[in-house]
């Protein structure tokens, strides 16, 4: 079982920002930038390009909705998108509010306190 399935099942906490029947979005625990969010299908699939077309397109539509909510709440030039999956083999779309290219590199990290994560998650949930 992946760590993200444990989050989906409520066994591990997360800062949730959006959810529907098929997908969940929560903040990355080690963010490249403030508001760095992961959009995850509830079905545990390892590799994004193994998803069937309709499921993949719904994930992208969900990610777009989350990105639009992030845009409203997090000051940034735009929302960068990345799919990696080398650390967690459960499909996830990284949405990263960026103003500089270095924020798309996974060596660039920022720290948020528990209170900051919670307050930002609340704002994004309201904007979703
Ligand atoms: P990737 O698999 O795309 O290379 O990276 C996985 C991402 O998931 C990383 O950015 C990492 O910080 C994040 N991550 C790993 N474990 C957890 C976790 O338990 N909770 C949350 N919210 N994010 C996690």
Automatic annotation (TrEMBL):
Active site: 92 (tele-amp-histidine intermediate)
A GO molecular function held by the record: hydrolase activity
A biological-process GO annotation: nucleotide metabolic process
Motif Histidine triad motif boundaries: 90-94
Record keywords, A-Z: Hydrolase
PROSITE patterns according to UniProt: HIT_2
Keyword Transmembrane helix set for record: no
InterPro entries documented for this protein: Histidine_triad_HIT, HIT-like, HIT-like_sf
Highest taxon in the source lineage: Bacteria
Enzyme Commission number(s) of this protein: 3.-.-.-
Record Pfam families: HIT
Domain HIT: 3-106
Gene3D superfamilies, alphabetized: HIT-like
PANTHER family on file: ADENOSINE 5'-MONOPHOSPHORAMIDASE HNT1, HIT FAMILY PROTEIN 1
Annotated protein name in UniProt: HIT family protein
Organism: Capnocytophaga ochracea
